[in-house]
Amino acid sequence: MVPASASLHCHDTRSLTGTEAKMAEQVKLIGSSNSPFVHRAAVALRLKGVPYEFIREDMSNKSELLLKHNPVHKKVPVLLHGDRAVCESLVIVEYVDEAFDGGPPLLPADPYDRATARFWAHFLEEKCLKSLWPALWTEGEVQEAAMKEARENLALVEEQLREKRFFGGDSIGLADIAGAGLLGHWVGVLEEVAGVRVLSDKEHPALRRWAAEYLANEAVKECLPDRDQLLSHFSAIRDKCVSVAKSMLPK
Amino acid sequence: MAGGEASGGEAGLTLLGLWASPFVIRARVALNLKGIAYSNVEEDLSIKSELLLKSNPVHKKVPVLIHNGKPICESRIIVEYVDEAFGAAGPSLLPADPYDRAVARFWAAYVDDKLFSTWRPVYGGRTSEERVDAATQAAAVLETFERAFEECSKGKPFFGGDAVGLVDVVLGSFLGWLRASEAMCGVKIVDAARTPLLAAWAERFCALDGVKEVIPDVQRLVEYNKMRRNYLGLPSLPPPEQHP
Fold first, then answer.
1. How far is A33 from chain B (nearest CA, A)?
2. 20 to 30 A Cα–Cα from B109, which one of A14, A61, A201, B95?
């Protein structure tokens, strides 16, 4: 199936180029619009100008399609490109950057800059997110300890963002995709549902500025879920958030 | 650089590490397989050097690769960096095709996210039960890797095909500790009866030049674990009696 927005000049005697052939292969994204991880994959596709079909997954009743293509984790997002399934949101972002030529590169060309981008993407994913979750959803001393760690991690991100517009430089890159949606849009909702404040204009001005710039991007706006929808979703699964937070604590 | 540090071989490379760390071993294997000279610095993690703290202020951990004064941190990131910065040196650790690269990255991440996290209590668990449970679960995770090996290798000797790839390096660097687990808590993790392809791959990988020199002996690792457990105030737990 040929995507409408791709212009392909097909001559009888000339076959499609590699890129055109790839573009012509159907791209599907299996996900839930409430997931910040699915958002990462969607943003990458839109920034690279790749048309795709969004397959809405009901996470409380997982489909055969999802289980078939992500048997290891059984999670979203899953990117289907022709007959290939790519899982794990940051792996998907790198895949989209490498498989499709359109749009600005999501990772820089220089190996050292690439290592730096991966470092911060990984930091935002591993340290920030994993300390944020218990900071939001646990209580008492446990929460105090988690909050301290979360704030230390956020301070490191804040420090980085004083020096740069995006982690990717002038344009949105891997590390921005890893963290800006989460910290700029999802965290506000989670703070409201949990009744806990983690970010503030006073302590995180650079982070706020970065998130605002990210959220103002047209490609980002197109795949950002409505705030009220998120509020309603996370309010409904509050208990699950609490149990996940508990399971993340060191034993 | 401050006086005292070696200039780090022709390429200006220094690796801050520790012989026992499976994460550091990844960096060493990558550099060794690509034939790249580097200065290997053993850190004492109880008294971290100024250079380490300055080079990895965020995590304060090893490995750190310093290339012409610029630090690269996080073992999987270092392996990809070595592959990209020294592209002309030796075979690529990552394949050319974007999908094959995605598959390699997926399994490399799974080693840390699932296998290592499951295995950790073998090292630092407070009770024998915790250690045995962790080792038993780690052996189960290896069954997933057995299937991954089948898919990725497509009948060839390594996850990377004919030559060593990212997953070989990331998982393979862990083999010293996986093998040591039986001596530590009585549970065999790499078992030819359960995961025959992986067991054969493990032998093959550990025999490679550039790898065999940096995978520590089981006995040395067992002693190191005893020493660290003692230092951390953890009970010394001898493994259960082996039945004939």
1. 23
2. A61
CB contact under 8 A, A115 and B99: no
pTM of the model: 0.92
Query: How far is B98 from chain A, CA to nearest CA, in Å?
Result: 6
Query: Do residue B99 and residue A81 have CB atoms under 8 angstroms apart?
Result: yes
Q: Is B98 on the interface with A (CB under 8 A)?
A: yes
Please tell me if residue B233 touches chain A, with a CB cutoff of 8 Å.
no
Give B14-49 pLDDT, tens digit per residue.
Answer: 999 999 999 999 999 999 999 999 999 999 988 999
Distance CA B180, CA B197 (A): 19
Contacts for A108 with CB less than 8 Å, ≥ 6 apart: A114, A117, A168, A169, A173
Partner A contacted by B48 (CB < 8 A): no
> What amino acid is encoded at B109 in this protein?
A
* Biggest CA-to-CA distance, chain A: 72
CA distance B11 to chain A (A): 14
Those residues with Cβ within 8 angstroms of residue B119's Cβ, 6 or more apart along the chain or in another chain: B134, B135, B138, B177, B178, B181, B189
The pLDDT of residue B184 is 95
Token pair belonging to B70: 């610029």
- Give mean pLDDT in consecutive 10-residue pieces for chain A, a chain of 251 residues: 36 50 80 97 97 94 95 96 96 98 95 98 93 95 95 97 94 98 97 96 97 98 97 96 89 63
Determine, for residues B102 and A95 on separate chains, whether the beta-carbon distance falls below 8 Å: yes
Chain B positions in Cβ-Cβ contact with residue A118 (cut-off 8 Å): 74, 77, 80
How buried is A55 (Cβ within 10 angstroms: 0-12 exposed, 13-18 middle, 19+ buried)?
Answer: middle
Rg of chain B over all Cα atoms, to the nearest angstrom: 18
Amino acid B111: pLDDT: 98
Amino acid identity at A4: A
Model confidence at B229: pLDDT above 50: yes
**Inter-residue contact A224 to A28 (CB < 8 Å):** no
Say if the Cβ atoms of A91 and B144 lie within 8 Å: no
Look at residue A107 and give its three-state secondary structure. coil
ipTM metric? 0.93
